[in-house]
Amino acid sequence: MNNFTFLISTKIIFGKDTEELVGSEVKKYSSRALLCTGGGSIKKSGLYDKVIRSLEENGIEYIELSGIQANPRLGLVYEGIKLCRENKLDFILGVGGGSVIDTAKAIAVGVPYEGDVWDFYSMKAKPEKALPVGDILTIPATGTEASISSVITNEDGMYKRGLNTELIRPVFSILNPELTFTLPDYQTACGACDMMAHTMERYFTNVENVDLTDRLCEAILKTIINNTPLALKDRSDYAARAEIMWAGTNAHNGLVDPGRIGDWASHGIEHELSALYDIAHGAGLSIVFPAWMKYVYKHNINRFVQFAVRVWDVDLSFESSEAIALEGINRMMEFFKKIGLPVTLSDANIPEDKIEEMADKCTNKDTKTVGNFVKLNKQDIINIYNLAK
Amino acid sequence: MNNFTFLISTKIIFGKDTEELVGSEVKKYSSRALLCTGGGSIKKSGLYDKVIRSLEENGIEYIELSGIQANPRLGLVYEGIKLCRENKLDFILGVGGGSVIDTAKAIAVGVPYEGDVWDFYSMKAKPEKALPVGDILTIPATGTEASISSVITNEDGMYKRGLNTELIRPVFSILNPELTFTLPDYQTACGACDMMAHTMERYFTNVENVDLTDRLCEAILKTIINNTPLALKDRSDYAARAEIMWAGTNAHNGLVDPGRIGDWASHGIEHELSALYDIAHGAGLSIVFPAWMKYVYKHNINRFVQFAVRVWDVDLSFESSEAIALEGINRMMEFFKKIGLPVTLSDANIPEDKIEEMADKCTNKDTKTVGNFVKLNKQDIINIYNLAK
Hints:
The structure is a homodimer of 389-residue chains. Chain A has 389 residues and is of the alpha/beta class.
């Protein structure tokens, strides 16, 4: 186990009707907020009206930035920064899914910065301050509600890049599982895969002696595996929705980081897919992760055996580690298929003609490697895309 | 799952040599600290000198309150409060085990209060403010390093009582597993039992649909069960010590609370034992918990089956739930014995003549019940003490 510092500073307010507390939470920080929203679903569900009422009851003035879509674009981030500066808004409230909250975070870190906020995403500069961000989460998936991450796509070249800094960890997040009852099944499944991916990026590490965090990872994975089919069977299953939602937060809030070094290659490889083909991140991950696993499992077969046995209940003869490891990967693919996700590029109607271009972007023209469990170069990434065909 | 609020506000600094950071952490809050310490072990180990050096290098003036013992007494808390007031100290630093840190917390909440600090422990008053507390933990056990709890014994009547308030959650805690290499085996074992007890107090709940937190509890328990024998076999096994230490924090920092209502009867029943006979809290718990389980398991046999199967790998015929449940309890007792803990009152040379007196104290003369999983009255508690004979 490596040395580590641990502090999850986001206050989580979880459960039924908790969205009504949003105004009183914002008020602790500011009386002038930018309200970031997505499409019309929060208006249809009535959530929007509740938020506005709560803000008004607490004397919060707000200006809205709406229309934030999946794989959120830099253009709207610029627009949000401008709105904040022009109107002296000093709190960013995101109400929606990961894209809305990631946009809120990008705006929060962009407002006090004199340069181009994309500098932070392209690693040209490091942020030093940010406005506080709060949110109401409607799509459990990215874990952004309590994470230090934000992922934005630059339309100029379709680069999808992430920023990680404690500065953008939300000061509060409101999570009401009831708000997820109306999610389409496909989005529920994509969310489940995204959470699993966050957990697995940590799970596959070269750091030894990480027993507790291994087991915490397994707890999160099993919870998602058991509860996602229940939520798909009955969209209004509060218990299942609550388990999924809370698992999603814990998959990415830092709980399963202590003392380990994560991999994150699959996220990088997937980002090229969803930047180019605009598929859901979770659906990209259900394609990339199995291929990545098949490509790297021999690097530490015992870790894949543990994954197969503890997470997927594989109970084959331990004389064949390889068979156990592969059966674990196989069961994961079967699970993804069962919940309606693609597991190959062709499942998602993604052509093969841009594999080299994506591998180039992912490795900055083969000038850097991707991942930590196994460091992958451009050819490795081409091989992984090919395994995913 | 019930609604909940979640925020673990303690910054954990974990790993080798981290004690050297203590001065710079204190400095973020104050330049005048009360330094609380226990017996001479931190002087012998060299930790004391390192702490003093780090405080001095960071310009922290300090006054020491030493001699804090197991089952810490109210008398020293009064003395600490007096020292702080007389010397205008506004940060409390605990360096030691749970007793030292619990004393530090009691002083922190006592200094700004005009009345008697015992009012908070006897439920006569609720604290409204406290000085910040930080610590270096040397005995992984109570989880106080990131918890909202402090337990103090009032010598006047030997009442051992707890206070729970967010105000006393440490602002930072420094955890270096190397500092635990010199712990006597018995203290290592008592600590392991205390952590397991914290987890089990949460595990046995009447709240339904708590899948993720169940699994997180099981992860913590299995980590302690697997690593404690390794630490006892080789006291300097860093990996095992680190797992135990981090498990102990997670057992009591609030990670396994969300959405559940814990029981806490066994802690109440044990407190009467250790207040009266001055045995280690962990050793009292290894006596009380099995008896409590035998007394209540029929209340929700399926939960005890889950505990037996998932935590203790019991693999009997599922046609007999009762056999599985009892085998789980049996394996827990065997584990406690294996690591050198008592599992009966006679193992700890505790006489039977004060059972009624203890049951009286525990239930305030049968005017209140104890526990939530099953609400226990005075007679129930007598029965449990008798089961522990």
